[in-house]
Design goal:
Layout (H helix, E strand, L loop, with lengths): L1 H23 L1 H11 L6 E5 L4 H12 L3 E6 L2 H14 L5 E5 L5 H15 L4 E4 L14 H29 L2 E6 L13 H24 L3 E8 L19 H13 L4 E4 L1 H13 L2 H4 L4
Parallel strand pairs: 1-2, 1-4, 2-3, 4-5, 5-6, 6-7
The structure holds NADP nicotinamide-adenine-dinucleotide phosphate.
Length: 289
């Protein structure tokens, strides 16, 4: 009993140290993992891998030795990514499939087809998303509904499909890409988007709670990115604390590899901003939107 307790304390201490290192120095943390090729023999499925954070994560995970199962609608981009990464990392296997996540049935079919390809999926990153919401009450219900459907209902379908696979395997790591905009209700074009991402974060927390309750060895991580310059915000003016896609994806991958339950990325300043957003009056929170 005492031995078990000591081993649990030691494991928790190592995990916390990793998470702190990954949060403070993501690039150095990833360098260490790269040397170990920690992804060797494992497979990661990423949705929305044709651009931005999904594409960036695919590059970094490939570097760590993982096999990749990538999907999106723009298959020419996925094919280009496969060609480039296969040449760079000949030891890994990469498969891609077309997937429009608004086609819920297709999500289950595509995820299962990847299981057929690889035999086992170690991690699924629910990343596909859009940022196209508009002020509420301005006649743009169609746009807001689409955003909520893609970012929440399609993400729910992806979580269902991933958890089907992980339950059958009795192992796996589900990662959802939420957003800092999930921390509070936000104004203007962020209202429906933020609500969809808050819904997704809550969904992931519920699945995590269920894994605790049922003692299944399936890990759930919720990532809250701050502003990262990608196609989703191409036309936006300079954004508060924005970073480029390379910096952003390194922070995300480091947090995922460190096995966080939840992380604001990049950790600085967003973990502090996140706490402030939760507790400050709305007039002040409005300043980061
Ligand atoms: N960049 C940021 O500042 C930021 C901050 C917080 C959270 N996020 C979240 O991070 C995730 C990735 O965004 P990003 O910044 O990388 O933007 P992005 O470059 O626009 O990438 C979005 C990805 O989602 C895919 N996607 C969109 N609609 C889809 C659909 N109907 N079916 C399948 N795939 C679809 C796109 O692929 P196709 O168009 O080829 O299908 C693309 O690969 C999103 O969930 C976003 O909300 C981003």
């Amino acid at each position: 009993m005492q031995h078990k307790l000591m081993s649990l304390v030691a494991k928790t201490a190592i995990k916390s140290k990793d998470q702190l290192f990954g949060a403070i120095q993501p690039a150095r943390y990833l360098k260490g993992l790269n040397k170990q090729q920690i992804g060797h023999g494992k497979t990661i499925l990423i949705t929305g891998a044709s651009s931005g954070l999904g594409e960036g994560m695919a590059r970094l995970f490939a570097k760590l030795g993982y096999n990749l199962a990538i999907c999106a609608r723009r298959t020419e981009r996925l094919e280009g990514l496969k060609t480039e990464l296969s040449a760079q990392y000949p030891d890994i296997r990469i498969e891609y499939r077309v997937l429009d996540v608004s086609d819920y049935e297709a999500i289950f079919e595509v995820f299962d087809a990847f299981v057929g390809d690889f035999g086992h999926i170690d991690r699924v990153v629910v990343n596909a998303g859009i940022g196209d919401s508009r002020r509420i009450g301005k006649g743009r219900f169609d746009t807001n509904r689409r955003t909520v459907e893609i970012n929440f209902v399609s993400a729910l379908a992806q979580c269902e499909a991933a958890m089907n696979i992980f339950r059958a395997q009795n192992s796996g790591h589900l990662v959802v890409i939420s957003s800092m905009s999930a921390m509070r209700g936000l104004p203007k074009h962020l209202t429906a988007y933020g609500a969809s991402k808050a819904g997704l974060a809550h969904l992931a927390e519920g699945i995590r709670a269920d894994m605790l309750l049922t003692k299944l060895p399936i890990q759930i991580s919720t990532i809250y990115p701050g502003y990262i310059r990608t196609e989703i915000n191409t036309n936006a003016k300079p954004l508060p604390f924005e970073v480029d896609a390379d910096t952003g994806t390194k922070a995300i991958v480091a947090a995922i590899e460190a096995g966080v339950e939840e992380a604001c990325v990049p950790s600085l300043p967003w973990s502090i901003v996140g706490q402030a957003m939760k507790h400050l009056p709305l007039q002040i929170v409005n300043k980061v939107s």
